[in-house]
Amino acid sequence: MESFDFIEMKVPAKAEYVGVVRLSTSGIANRMGFSYEEIEDLKVAISEAMSNATTHAYDEKDGGEVTVGFGLYPDRLEVMVADRGGSFDLNKIKADIGPYQNNQSIEDLREGGFGLFLIEALMDKVEIKNDYGVIVLMTKYLRENEVDINDDQISTTQ
């Protein structure tokens, strides 16, 4: 079993908390060494998954929570967004989860499923589990950046 850090957040299933998760994503991905563009892709993909969860998973009056889990591995970031508030047993979820198939009827997952196409385009791997609630597991691999921090970079203070 490879070692990793796991960070879990629970936020109310309300659109105004998407920004909190975006900021956390940005901080985590930045610390791991992802590029600016990769971080932007991660933020968009996670926003889509969160929006999907907050829009479709709960009735307005119902409230509810969205759970976001970040698995930080040496070579990748795995992000889970689940629209039922429970905690993750990461290994159990990963054992049960399968790849998102383009031929699946999007309506089976959630109406307004355009976000899933966007998520799939931005991430390296997307897996979905929807027995009770929807869990989206997104993976972004950490590529060795061609330019080291100390190499010749264009200065930002021109």
Major sheet, described briefly? 6 strands, antiparallel
Average pLDDT: 78
Largest beta sheet: strand ordering: 1-2-3-6-5-4
> At the third CATH level, what is the topology name?
Heat Shock Protein 90
Give me the Rg, rounded: 16 Å
Can you walk me through this structure?
It catalyses: L-seryl-[protein] + ATP = O-phospho-L-seryl-[protein] + ADP + H(+); L-threonyl-[protein] + ATP = O-phospho-L-threonyl-[protein] + ADP + H(+). Residues 11-140 form the Histidine kinase/HSP90-like ATPase domain. Its EC number is 2.7.11.1. Negative regulator of sigma-B activity. Phosphorylates and inactivates its specific antagonist protein, RsbV. Upon phosphorylation of RsbV, RsbW is released and binds to sigma-B, thereby blocking its ability to form an RNA polymerase holoenzyme (E-sigma-B). Residues 147-153 have low confidence and may be disordered. Helices cover 35% and strands 23% of the residues. It has helices spanning 18-32, 36-56, 90-96, 106-109, 114-122, and strands spanning 5-12, 65-72, 76-82, 98-99, 125-129, 135-141. It is built from five helices and six strands. The chain is globular, with a radius of gyration of 16 Å. A hairpin with a 5-residue loop joins strand 5 and strand 6 (135-141). The protein has a six-stranded antiparallel sheet with strand order 1-2-3-6-5-4. It has one domain: 2-Layer Sandwich (Heat Shock Protein 90).
